[in-house]
Write a structure and sequence with these properties.
Elements (H helix, E strand, L loop, with lengths): L12 H8 L3 H8 L7 H14 L5 H4 L8 E6 L5 H16 L3 E6 L4 H11 L5 E4 L5 H7 L5 E4 L9 E6 L1 H13 L5 E6 L7 H12 L5 E5 L3 H14 L5 E4 L2 H13 L9 E6 L12 E4 L2 H16 L7 E4 L1 E3 L5
Length: about 325
């Protein structure tokens, strides 16, 4: 239908009213099941709302300001401080707009993610987050709703997109290790269904640049996961003199374990993480890392929601990581 608002634009009561040929007060009465409207008109309004993909926000209706915008922020794991920092950036940006953010934790579970997506449509006006589901599935659950995906490249055409590019940062980290005489540099990678991460590909490319061999062990994304993976790695390759990890949480566990096994950090064993989190300053020695501006990621996501609500498809945003040298390398 030619009267349907363009994809990505927030569909309003006025859009439904225009398409159904009634006043927006009539649409409000129909959607709220008021009695002052005849049955055929009510059905026409409901059919039109369904066709256009209009989704009233339960949260917004319950707030003092009826025009307030609510955003659902979907993250895989609140216990991972990376996502907490991104959420803090999004919350700060939303406050500046007087918007409301509702945080959903999917616990890195695909079924929970689907369940969250099923709920989102009737609760918020836009969705931001980290998803494992393919684009068509997300599109099906969020038809017409503004969506911003973070950290993916296979993003559906109507969605906003934020990419994290750590290639140069990882290359700088490996170059630092090589320049300081490290030659046996391993990686603890995120174990995701047996597939190597893109961060592993950056590490492997950087190692090839310096003519160095690669060593990889999978690790769960936790301090305990880092400890277990570091123990396994050093048992298999006791001559390693440095480790690069998928994220800072794994790196902290790796550093604890390396020291338990008698390695001096950084004197004879260097540790570099990825994310550049504030928690890295709370360990001794402070953790070197490939740093992402996490607050900026959250702020960009909210800015892209604003563009989508205005009917503008935002350009792909890329946040580039840099090497942050602290005491562990």
């Amino acid at each position: 239908m030619t009267d349907r608002p363009q994809p990505g634009k927030r569909i309003t009561i006025r859009d439904v009213a225009k398409s159904a040929g009634v006043s927006y007060q009539t649409v409000s009465r129909a959607l709220n099941d008021k009695g002052e409207i005849d049955t055929s008109t009510k059905q026409r309004v409901l059919d039109t709302a369904r066709r256009l993909g209009y989704r009233p926000s339960r949260f917004a209706r319950g707030l003092v300001r009826q025009d307030s915008t609510s955003v659902g922020l979907v993250i895989p794991n609140l216990l991972n401080p990376y996502f907490t920092e991104v959420a803090a950036g999004a919350l700060a940006a939303a406050r500046r707009r007087d918007w409301h953010v509702v945080v959903y934790d999917t616990a890195e579970d695909e079924e929970q993610e689907l369940s969250t997506l099923a709920v989102l449509g009737s609760q918020v006006d836009a969705v931001v987050g980290y998803f494992s589901q393919p684009g068509p599935v997300i599109d099906q659950y969020t038809s017409g709703m503004p969506v911003v995906q973070i950290g993916r490249t296979d993003v559906a055409g109507r969605f906003g997109e934020i990419r994290v590019d750590g290639e140069q940062g990882v290359h700088a980290a490996i170059a630092h290790l090589a320049a300081s005489g490290r030659r046996r540099i391993g990686m603890l990678d995120h174990d995701h269904h047996g597939e190597a991460s893109v961060r592993y590909s950056w590490y492997a490319d950087a190692m090839r640049e310096h003519g160095l061999p690669t060593f990889v062990t999978p690790a769960a994304q936790s301090i305990e996961g880092g400890q277990r993976a570091m123990a396994a790695m050093l048992e298999k390759h006791p001559d390693l003199d440095a480790i690069f990890t998928y994220n800072d949480v794994i790196a902290i566990g790796a550093m604890f374990q390396a020291r338990l096994l008698g390695r001096r950090v950084p004197a004879d064993f260097a540790v570099i993480g990825f994310d550049g989190l504030a928690i890295g300053t709370m360990v001794e020695p402070p953790l070197s890392s490939v740093r992402i501006d996490t607050r900026r990621v959250g702020a960009i996501a909210i800015d892209q929601v604003g563009q989508l609500l205005d009917g503008v498809k935002p350009e792909v945003a890329t946040v580039r990581a840099t090497f942050l040298l602290r005491g562990s390398a």
